[in-house]
Protein: Amino_oxidase domain-containing protein
Organism: Heligmosomoides polygyrus
Amino acid sequence: KSKSKSQFSECVVPSSPRRYSFYRRTNNVFGVYSFTLQLALLNFADWDDGASEPCSLTLKRKGFRDILDDIKVKVPEHRIKLNSVVTKISYSGEFILSLNNGEEHHYDHVIVTCSLGYLKKNLKQFFCPALDARKEEAISSLGFGNMMKVFLEYTRPWWPLDVDAIAPLQSNSPLAESFPVLQPLQWNNKILVAWVSGKGPSLISKLSDEELADGLTLHLRGALGDSTIPLPVKIFRHSWITDPLVGGSYSYLTPKSVKFVPDAFSRMAEPVVLEDRPILCFAGEHTHPTMYQTTIGAYESGEREALRITTHLLRT
């Protein structure tokens, strides 16, 4: 704890590349100067994505669509309702979900999977009655970052194929702070990916794809001294922090949560129980005690809550 941030990162690199990758990603969520104020060091002890050192788990080319198709294969199509925003969950007496189109749906059990950011923003009006103090304390104490990923696609790679990262250090571009490092995508050598954080997401959300492509290319050409670096042919990005259904990116332990709500992630997973029935359950990456920030953690938490409900139904 007595080490500076730079000393801490240096001591982590040799022994645990996966955890350093996590450190770098999480550090970027807050920007350099607010790191020690918002991120609890306990994250580095508790977080684990389930892979063995020095590996990490990734979707590669598969993508989420194939996974979702596999999950829903046994679910009748008419049971899946798309483009339906839940505006209120009422669970006193009858269990009612109210949608933004005016519809109301009745259920015996509900698994809430919305993001921590959405819960933070809509907590007071989303649940009726309000959640208990334990849950509200957990929601309030945990942090939710503003990370954005930007993918740059080129017709062919202009960088050496054996590099792990491109760090254009010498640049006066206004985008330099937002794009300190770009990494080739492991399963597509025509794509660079940048993790954008701090003031970056707000800055680049004001730019069109064309403006961002021009600005980034000037930044790279100036910093790397190569005027032949081409424009990307496509840019893929999504502003999670301004998305009203998400409100951020990764959950994390804050000093406040460690001090006052040390079991915050476990509290997030606690169901609302009525007469021994788990009527209102919670899933998502922010409800997993060790795999928070990951799709795997979100998936496992969904399985956990489905099992909780089916176990109850089998007992009754």
Notes: Confidence is low (pLDDT under 50) at residues 1-23, 29-36. Residues 82-144+248-315 form a domain with the FAD/NAD(P)-binding domain fold (CATH 3.50.50.60).
